Amino acid sequence: MTIKETDKKFILPTYGRLDLEIVSGKGSTLKASDGKEYIDFGSGIAVNTFGACDDEWIKAVTAQLGKIQHTSNYYYTEPCSTLAKMLCEKTGMSKVFFSNSGAEANECAIKAARKYGTDQNPDKNIIITLKNSFHGRTVTTLSATGQDGFHKHFTPFTGGFVYAEANNIEELKTIANKNCCAIMFEPIQGEGGVLPLTKEFVLAAKEIADAHDMLLIIDEVQTGNGRTGKLYAHQHFGISPDIFTTAKGLAGGLPIGATVFSEKLKDIMPAGSHGSTFGGNPISAAAAINVLSRLDDDFLAEVTKNSRYLWSELSKIDGIEEICGMGYMIGLTTRADAKEILKKCLENGLLVLTAKDKVRLLPPLNITKEELDKGIEILKTVIETI
Ligand SMILES: Cc1ncc(COP(=O)(O)O)c(C=O)c1O
Description:
Bound molecules: pyridoxal-5'-phosphate
Shape: globular
Number of helices: 12
């Protein structure tokens, strides 16, 4: 049986897989089982921060593999504590809870917000999220996700979420009240179509949250770890959240989630209130230390510069009607159907993604000029001839 046949026989068909068996890769070039090479403009959905099999990253991961791969969370481990220190020092936050995915990082944020609210008043448990948002696939993070399409099949869902329209300050003011314990949003709605929030809305949300003693939770699962040209996208707005969550690109290709808390919340989750067997796993933590230590100001300036080049080349392609997003998180409104473009790009050796009706690009942050140009050329040919 081929990889595809075995997969089809033994794996639940929850993913609409494309007809491609990836076997290896280096940087932003991936290789399929038939030997064909592909330029990667997707990074495994914003995960492979430094592309495939980056030498420095492999060194950091394998060095830790030779020491200890896992302990229970009853013991202290060096990679976990060092990573928490780095995350706090780089963001001005105070405490971290480690888990394994974006959904799990958000679950922790939601639990902490409910604890914060109900410690004051048992009815203060409502969380405001935004319409068109995406926060994960667990029952509670599906509830947090403000899209009706995700609220099917798995009833009963977790209650206590209300949805406000993105960038609508007046609506947010109307919805917020003393029984709301938090407002939670993505700085750019990734799965929702790469839609950035306005600075005015983010600043107003912070004010409204403060006025009602609600926590401001920022979901940086997709926008974080250098993707937008800042370490975390909320840093573009000059605000400090009470909690932010990160996952995907943090460990550059190994599972990790982190919920990061401000000083105000440093005591919110006491011993026994939360846990995760693999949370803070030494291998993932060693990988994340490598990633974070390389996302310094010089590297982020390069991301900004190189992504501007990509935006400028994309703006010259006939058939792209609008470009949205920030840095290397890009959504393209195209004259032709986005899914058709994705299929044709695949045939021509380029991996792209879609988000709603847009083509979505999330290239590795260290993609070379040569790989970028190759990808742009394929995209141009596909879009202009489709
Ligand atoms: C903004 C956001 N939050 C949460 C998630 C869920 O992350 P995970 O799939 O790691 O659980 C995603 C995944 O796409 C996301 O984009």
